[in-house]
Give the backbone structure.
Amino acid sequence: MTARDVTEQTFEAEVLKSEKPVLVDFWAAWCGPCRMVSPILDEIATENSDKIDIVKVNVDENPNLAMQYQITSIPAMKVFKAGEVSTSIVGAKPKPALEADLAAYLS
Amino acid sequence: MHNVIIIGSGPAGYTAAIYAARAELEPIVIASSVEAGGELMNTTDVENFPGFPEGILGPDLMGKMQAQAERFGAKVVYDDVDSVDLGGPVKTVKTMLGDTYEARSVIIATGSAYRKIGIPDEERLSGRGVSWCATCDGFFFKGKTIAVVGGGDSAMEESTFLTRFAEKVYVVHRRDSLRASKIMQERAFSNPKIEFVWNNEVVGIDGENAVTGLTLRSTLDGSESTLDVQGLFVSIGNDPRTHLVHGQLDLTAEGTIAVEGRSSKTNIPGVFAAGDVIDPTYRQAATAAGSGTVAALDAEHYLASLAEAGEPDAGADQLAGHVA
Ligand SMILES: Cc1cc2nc3c(=O)[nH]c(=O)nc-3n(C[C@H](O)[C@H](O)[C@H](O)COP(=O)(O)OP(=O)(O)OC[C@H]3O[C@@H](n4cnc5c(N)ncnc54)[C@H](O)[C@@H]3O)c2cc1C
């Protein structure tokens, strides 16, 4: 399952109003570590599709979202719960490390 | 049981893989899951790797090295090594995803990790204005004022690159002259957006949720001053990544893996090391590639001598457990 793109137009409906926790992966095409972490997030999404939604925001195309959430380093992964950021992860990490960071949502 | 496992996929690891694959040793490269390709994945133009007169992008260069290794049969695994057991004739390598690999020889090419300044707020504000990667994060500092700390080639490269985005880039350096090569210095000196702050070190980073400024201390008279910036890029060098082999391989006073003379031989037979992890001095893509060559040739020679002596490992393939 490949994470779908969310934009400034769809962010509210798909992220802020979501019933399930949503992990938003802030990324860009020119960011090498983003390319490395994206298949890992896809795997985590597939294995936990009942517990967490994983979507992507392209910071080049959605600069206002990047600014609003004070992104200064990517990949930045933020989990939104009931419209609020509940966990922030910065930087690409191996799958077991990401799973540990996200343990609260995956169990 | 494999002939050779190569840990690391920078210029050293991939070059070792090209040589080992062409020698039909069917090497396994454990590349790391999120840092495959090594340090050059985080840079733009590489202008001093021979064979590319127009320069080449770091990620493109690493993609080509990987393709060249795979063309001759090297197998690249996107996983991270968690622990190694190097002592006996059969070396064991365990990964974060839970696989175990066994081999007659191992080449350690784990490169280096960026150095931190080591001041309290550095960690807290990392990802909130403190960064170690200009190409990854420069974009977020459009029109802002930022500082780069460091005086080597990478610091000059990063500063020059960051002027694409930032309004102003201060380079904070402890001394009054640079380590960087002449060409990189000239580029930085002639850039109107770059201003040097000589003889100062960063002793504090200010900011609640985002960087707002730095506290500097003069290396001449100890006086402190502040510098208003919204970002800090740290480029003060690298330390060899040796934690995997602590207690197993001898290290040098500089912290690199100790090797015998110009070879790649460590203190354990069948274990070789290459690239920045053995190099306290040069640390270039081309020297790392050369060092990877040496390691593959040393491993090949070692394996040939094992074969001559009669293999010690018959039956080892049947070891219990999940063996990849
Ligand atoms: C910003 C920047 C710009 C640079 N520009 C240039 C340049 O223009 N020209 C030049 O010649 N040099 C340049 N360099 C230096 C060059 O990148 C290094 O000298 C070179 O990459 C060293 O190669 P290496 O193979 O020894 O290590 P690295 O490239 O650091 O690769 C090490 C590899 O080991 C892997 N690894 C580490 N631990 C593990 C583990 N436990 N499990 C699995 N894998 C692991 C890493 O993920 C990585 O893939 C630059 C460096 C930087 C930081």
